[in-house]
Write a structure and sequence with these properties.
By secondary structure, the chain is α/β, with parallel strands linked by helices. It has 13 helices and eight strands. The protein is globular, with a radius of gyration of 22 Å. InterPro entries: Acyl_Trfase/lysoPLipase, Lipid_Hydrolase, PNPLA_dom.
């Protein structure tokens, strides 16, 4: 490997359409001769991480994301396509004088069990003592509502990812045993991602944990894993995985990994020799004043992300690239060229700021004390 290439590990958080900002981050990484050894991601971070891990450069990544046919997932009659939106509207109209009409309260209500179409689904959920209370009820209702209807089933996304990865010779995770094995990644997969098993209320690390369902991790298709990780509740249908349980077959529902943790930096072992770079997409939090179906959908999706996991996201030799995406929503599928440029520029700006800090200690180490003093005194050219 070229001596000028710098190694780093990469974690990409979720954020829907705003993931276009990762193009800008990746451009700066290439300009800095930065090579990502191990990559982890969730939701859109899993999508982009898979493309980077497959060997696509920033120019190709830009073309790939720009060429995606968002017309295939165009928002239609939301209240009709997504029963959860319609039921929330009914819930607020019935409870005019109730003070707490939050999305969280609505999704955590047990009355969803009484629905004839959803009650039968509850037998699929396990009765783990750790999986109780708020998280249990919320995840059960997420699956129940998502099964009743969503914007799209995810077939188009999976097929699109599959075709792009195949062009680089990537089909299953066996083709991605290119990373550095360690205690957190014993099989040395270059790219890994997370989903959530809503039945068990647990994060599923892909491909490693797919063995729980009787599937060989090496044989799991990367495109299928990306679909699991990006199955945003209410937007995509949950991915059904069958597990043999004695003489019976049990259905498990896998959804977006960002539901429990939208920035899983714990997927990569901390290292003092290789810095960890974690990228987070941060938009402006706006109060929803007008309860249109689209705003309700955004509120529901925002509510079901990053809950239930303690915020212990600090590791030695780790750096956070916080990308501010402004008013652009994760559901803004019809982005203008100006908005796309804004996101890419935001990714570049955040990366330039952070990468400067990542490699400063190495410069000082090479330079020595005398050189550092010269820089402090302004004598270094």
């Amino acid at each position: 490997m070229n001596e000028d290439i710098r190694l780093a590990n990469l974690v990409l958080g979720g954020g829907g359409v705003r993931g276009i900002a990762y193009i800008g981050m990746y451009e700066v990484a290439e300009e800095k001769s930065l090579y990502f050894k191990n990559i982890a991601g969730v939701s859109v971070g899993a999508l982009v991480g898979a493309f980077i891990g497959a060997g696509y450069n920033s120019v190709e990544l830009r073309r790939i994301l720009y060429d995606f046919d968002f017309e295939k997932i165009k928002l239609r009659d939301i209240s009709r396509e997504i029963p959860a939106v319609k039921k929330y509207m009914e819930y607020t109209s019935r409870n005019t004088f109730q003070r707490d009409k939050s999305f969280k309260t609505f999704l955590n209500m047990r009355w969803a069990e009484s629905d004839n179409n959803s009650a039968k689904n509850y037998r699929f959920f396990e009765t783990d003592e750790e999986f109780t209370g708020y998280r249990r009820d919320l995840l059960k209702n997420i699956v129940t509502y998502s099964k009743q209807g969503s914007l799209f089933d995810g077939d188009y996304l999976e097929e699109w990812v599959y075709k792009i990865l195949r062009k680089r010779g990537i089909k299953t995770f066996a083709d991605l045993r290119l990373g550095k094995p360690d205690w957190s990644n014993p099989n040395g997969y270059k790219v890994r991602m997370t989903a959530v098993d809503a039945n068990r209320g647990r994060i599923v690390v892909l491909p490693d944990d797919i063995s729980y369902y009787g599937i060989d991790p090496d044989r799991l298709e990367v495109a299928k894993a990306v679909r699991m990780s990006t199955s945003v509740p209410f937007a995509f249908k949950p991915v059904e995985v069958l597990k043999k349980d004695g003489s019976s077959i049990k259905k498990h529902y896998l959804i977006d990994g960002g539901v429990l943790d939208n920035l899983p930096i714990w997927l990569i072992q901390p290292s003092m020799s290789i810095p960890l770079i974690a990228c987070e997409l941060k938009g402006k939090e706006k109060l929803i004043n007008v309860m249109t179906p689209f705003n309700i959908l955004k509120g529901l999706i925002s509510t079901v992300h990053d809950f239930g996991v303690p915020d212990i996201k600090h590791y030695k030799n780790s750096y956070l690239v916080r990308i501010y995406t402004g008013d652009i929503s994760f559901l803004d599928f019809e982005l203008s060229d100006k908005e796309k440029k804004y996101l890419i520029d935001a990714g570049r700006l955040a990366a330039l700021y952070t990468f400067q800090r990542v490699f400063r200690p190495k410069y000082m180490q090479r330079c020595g004390l005398f050189c550092v003093l010269r820089r402090i005194l302004g004598l270094h050219s």
